[in-house]
Amino acid sequence: MPGGRLTDEDRQHIAAGLAEGLGYAEIGRRLGRPASTVMREVTRNGGPDDYGAERAHEATRHRARRHKRAQPPAPPIPDSGHGRDPQAVQDFTESFIALLVQQGLPRMEARVLACLYVTDSGTLTAADLVQRLHVSPASISHAVAFLEQQGMLRRERVPGARRERYVIDDEIWLRSILASLRMNEVLAAASRRGAEILGAATPAGGRFESSAELLSLVSEAFRQVLEQWQSPAARSAPRPVRTPGD
């Protein structure tokens, strides 16, 4: 909704507009709100003949309190017999979601990804996600479509059922890095083309040439890391133990 939630002052203006006999569209224009917002507000609070600003504001506060009470906190991830502290797992999950959001992932998509990531199986159905995150199936569907497009999860059919389940694996960040590498190489090629067209000796052309050099170095570093990671010797070698101060 443009401008956020309706305020008490907004509702006073709506009541005044209705008293003047104005339509929803005109009231919305005066408030800078869509006509549909005004129509929903009036319809759910008595209609045009019985709308009262103070009563509507109080009813909205009451609905918000009732909704908040009706939404219990998301349950901790099951322990699965590993001796984990459920609250510690929950706290970590929330911090991981915040980190993903800081990295640019939409919050709903971050919640779905984190919910999958902290499960030992790495697999949940849409119903599982709805129950754990307390959101609508449509929200899960949109988030899953986005994450699947980014290569961050895949769908599987539940054996013997029509349901799908969503799966992540140890290759999630590998696929993400590969996608970044492809985009990086596209940007490097475009920068080289820009330097060629604008002239490398000009300030604008030199800027593109410098960008192309940096992007090419980044791509080469990415490729070396991926080759090292994918080599059998590197994957089977024991990880170094880090000590405080490393």
Describe the 3D structure.
- By secondary structure, this protein is mainly α.
- Helix content is 63%, strand content 4%.
- A 3-stranded antiparallel β-sheet has the order 1-3-2.
- Strand 2 and strand 3 form a beta hairpin.
- The longest helix has 28 residues.
Gist?
The chain is 63% helix and 4% strand.
What composes the largest sheet? 3 strands, antiparallel
* Distance separating the two termini: 49 Å
- What's the gyration radius in Å? 27 Å
Structural class: mainly alpha
Pattern of helices and strands: HHHHHHEHHEEHHH
Summary keywords:
single chain, 246 residues, mainly alpha, three-stranded antiparallel beta sheet, 11 helices, 63% helix, 4% strand, flat, disordered C terminus
List the helices and strands and how they pair.
Elements: H1 8-19, H2 24-31, H3 35-43, H4 53-70, H5 86-102, H6 107-117, E1 123-125, H7 126-133, H8 137-149, E2 154-157, E3 164-167, H9 172-198, H10 203-230, H11 232-236
Antiparallel strand pairs: 1-3, 2-3
